[in-house]
Every structure is written in structure tokens, then in C-alpha cells.
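Title: [Solved] CWC27 spliceosome associated cyclophilin 3D structure

Original question kept below for reference.
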Amino acid sequence: VLFNPFDDIIPREIKRLKKEKPEEEVKKLKPKGTKNFSLLSFGEEAEEEEEEVNRVSQSMKGKSKSSHDLLKDDPHLSSVPVVESEKGDAPDLVDDGEDESAEHDEYIDGDEKNLMRERIAKKLKKDTSANVKSAGEGEVEKKSVSRR
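Solution (posted by the thread starter after getting help):
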């Protein structure tokens, strides 16, 4: 601007944010909150769990921390499986089904497969044409009823 007609107007000063804080204040960590176990929401159970968690975390320091490792010594869990699996019977059932289907495929030749496909295709065509005819008859009945 070459010519300023407003000589008496002074521009506003923009307030700058204070970024001059010392690095020590920025790097201060927040203190960890402590649980007040006398509150009803925590109670004795929470205190026991907290002690157990602390004990486990100290013992597992530097080791892997999978859920299996953490729950290994849990007194609430049982090491006995709920459902007993029969190893001898289960694989036989699967194998028998596969053998039967393989034997069944051996008996059916390529010609028989083609004949079966043709029969199925014909049946599907008949069913769709029957559905179309029945739907068409229903429309005729609806029209005759609406004319009266």
C-alpha cells in the first residue's frame, strides 16, 4: 500500500504463544496414580489381583509374555480338559467319508456324469417354466377379480 489514509490506526499486536518453557518442565513425567483399595469399587479382591500381577510381572521380566505363560499358575483354571477326545475314532470317521466319496467317483464314468447333468438341467428348465406359468395364471386371476 503506497498511500495510507488512516494515519491514526495502529495495527494490533498478535499475542505469541509462550514456547520458551524449559525442557525440564516438558520432559517431566506424570506421577503414576495409586489405587485406593479402601474404596468399594476395588475391595480386597482387587488388592489380591494387583499383588498377583506385580508378582507375575517381576517373574516374567525379560521373558515372553504370552497369555499361556501368564495363566499357567492361575488357581481358578483347571489343567484337565473338559471334553475328552477319542483319538482313535475321530480320524477314522474323516477317512471313511473320503474313501466312500473316492470309491463313488470311480464308479461314475464321464458319460454317466454328462447324462446326470443333462437330466438336472432339464428338471431345472421344467421347474422354471412351471413357475412362470403358475405366476402368469395368478396374474390373470387377479385381473379378473379387479374388473368386477
